[in-house]
Design brief:
- By secondary structure, this protein is of the alpha+beta class.
- The chain has one domain.
- The protein has a 4-stranded antiparallel sheet.
- Helix 2 crosses helix 6.
- It is globular, with a radius of gyration of 16 Å.
Length: about 170
């Protein structure tokens, strides 16, 4: 029930942004198409698929230069809200909501220069090794969870990060 209430609040907040801003409506349409294409984009080896989903930042963009920008398409908060709505509305996807949301946020935030990192985690359901394994995806920024509730990622062990933030990694 709490999740449904959260999703309704998310939708209301994002829709209020979309109503008044034609640039965000255009971005929302692009994000919807992005989310619909994710299953096909994720075929093949995961690192190669994620590399193909990683955009080049706009020329001259970096996180420090965009934090005070006024254009809504460069506003990380607006991008996050609209990406969350686009992922939420893609109910027919075979991919879980957290994966759709994380990938949409990742792509569009990286495009404006926010250096977020994808995290993929796993844990045993109910914390018992004899149960099935559950997965979760989320973003980090500077090594900290990026707008991800602690309860959503609690107990998950990071199995894969992209891009790999460990410069000593041989992968």
């Amino acid at each position: 029930m709490m999740t449904r209430a959260h999703h309704l609040r998310l939708a209301a907040a994002a829709l209020s942004l979309l109503i008044f801003d034609p640039h965000l409506r255009s971005l929302f349409a692009e994000m919807r198409a992005f989310c619909r294409n994710l299953p096909a984009a994720l075929k093949g080896p995961l690192p190669a698929a994620l590399q193909s989903l990683t955009p080049e930042p706009a020329p001259g963009s970096n996180f420090s230069s965009i934090t005070n920008c006024q254009p809504p398409t460069n506003d990380p908060d607006a991008i996050r809200a609209v990406a969350d709505l686009a992922a939420l509305l893609d109910r027919r996807s075979p991919l879980g909501l957290c994966l759709r949301r994380s990938l949409a946020r990742y792509h569009f935030l990286r495009r404006i220069g926010v250096p977020v990192v994808l995290q993929f985690g796993a844990k045993f359901v109910a914390g018992k090794p004899d149960r099935e394994v559950g997965g979760h995806a989320w973003l980090t920024l500077n090594g900290r969870p990026y707008y991800e509730a602690d309860e959503n990622r609690r107990g998950f062990t990071v199995m894969f990060s992209f891009p790999d933030s460990n410069p000593d990694s041989n992968s």
